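Milestone 3.1: sequence recovery, worked example.
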């Protein structure tokens, strides 16, 4: 009898332990973040008086921005990662813009529609992502972050952005295939507010915090990373305002007293002077300097993307002058933006070390260069 009692106790202990183990292993997963339907009511938004109307559009509660430069900011919302969806009818003749991770008016991530491309699904610049850094929208420095999209005016278009760490996917009407994929969001802001800008109508705004659809938060591949033709390591002078009514002056050429700082290329070989110097109040010039060591004397072709004006010296000799001023003649393909398509010319290199010195002026939006040799034969 005593043995039976001991056996029974052991069985009860085993069953209890098994039940506890099963309870731990079969515990329910944490609930998924709840989707937030954002009310399109005046009390939820900051906006300039008379610029926004809250109404029903096609029987749907809507927010209508009535001016092409008006901005409306969602109150008390801090967004980091997740999915944002909305329906929009873009009425602005130029742009309809969405901001996220918005720190303030000067620093935010920006995704926008060029509404003149509505109805033209093959237009290569219908949508674009651009970072806003210190009040400068870098649309002209990162033209490769644009794509075609099939959307129209006069009807609802469904937009979905999936944002995870450094990456983003943007869907327009077709929810099965992203219209634009961004391998690296370019601002230094990791979270912030949400805003819209431009004449248009907005409905069905939903935010899904943390729902990233498996998109990696790590930055994606840089296609230029393993290409040794890019000139990535430079030194940069201080930025200086240009002399009144002077295009360029030899008096601005660096001297022995010039102070230099190291600067390295970002993705796609971009030397980003906007990130370095921020927004200026006047036309400015800075100098970039690097060294190319050639084993022989040779003429080496280079492709140079730049914004907005450059003067290139090799071993103290002026070898190239060019301008890329958007909206003026001449400006370079593609459409006055910084690209390796902008220009190509020859660097006359001596055997040994060669100093390459570039003066670069900024008049409009982004500021910087991309420099890539055609080949690296006899280059050390």
């Amino acid at each position: 009898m005593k043995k039976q009692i001991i056996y029974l106790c052991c069985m009860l202990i085993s069953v209890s332990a098994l039940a506890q183990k099963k309870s731990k292993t079969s515990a329910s997963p944490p609930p998924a973040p709840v989707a937030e339907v954002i009310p399109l009511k005046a009390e939820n938004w900051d906006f300039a008086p008379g610029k926004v109307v809250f109404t029903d559009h096609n029987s749907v509660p809507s927010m209508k921005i009535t001016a092409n430069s008006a901005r409306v900011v969602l109150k008390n919302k801090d967004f980091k990662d997740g999915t944002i969806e909305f329906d929009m009818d873009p009425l602005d003749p130029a742009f309809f813009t969405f901001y996220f991770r918005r720190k303030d008016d000067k620093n935010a991530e920006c995704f926008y529609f060029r509404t003149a491309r509505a109805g033209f699904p093959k237009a290569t610049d219908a949508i674009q992502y651009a970072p806003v850094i210190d009040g400068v929208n870098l649309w002209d420095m990162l033209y490769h972050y644009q794509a075609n999209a099939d959307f129209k005016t006069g009807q609802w278009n469904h937009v979905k952005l999936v944002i995870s760490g450094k990456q983003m996917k943007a869907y327009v009407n077709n929810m099965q295939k992203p219209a634009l994929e961004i391998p690296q969001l370019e601002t230094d802001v990791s979270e912030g507010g949400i805003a819209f800008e431009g004449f248009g109508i907005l409905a069905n705004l939903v935010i899904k915090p943390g729902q990233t659809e498996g998109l990696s938060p790590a930055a994606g591949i840089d296609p230029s990373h393993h290409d040794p033709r890019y000139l990535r390591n430079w030194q940069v002078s201080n930025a200086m305002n240009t002399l009144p009514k002077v295009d360029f002056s030899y008096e601005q050429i660096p001297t022995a007293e010039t102070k230099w700082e190291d600067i390295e290329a970002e993705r796609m070989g971009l030397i980003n002077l906007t990130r370095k110097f921020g927004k200026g109040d006047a036309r400015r010039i800075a100098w970039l300097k690097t060294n190319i060591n050639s084993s022989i004397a040779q003429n080496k072709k280079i492709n140079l993307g730049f914004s907005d004006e450059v003067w290139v010296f090799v071993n103290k000799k002026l070898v190239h002058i060019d301008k890329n001023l958007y909206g003026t003649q001449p400006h370079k393909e593609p459409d006055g933006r910084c690209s390796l398509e902008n220009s190509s010319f020859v660097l006359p290199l001596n055997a040994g070390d060669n100093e390459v010195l570039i003066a670069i002026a900024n008049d409009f939006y982004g500021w910087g260069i991309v420099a890539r040799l055609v080949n690296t034969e006899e280059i050390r």
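The radius of gyration is 28 Å. Residues 192 and 319 are 46 Å apart (CA to CA).
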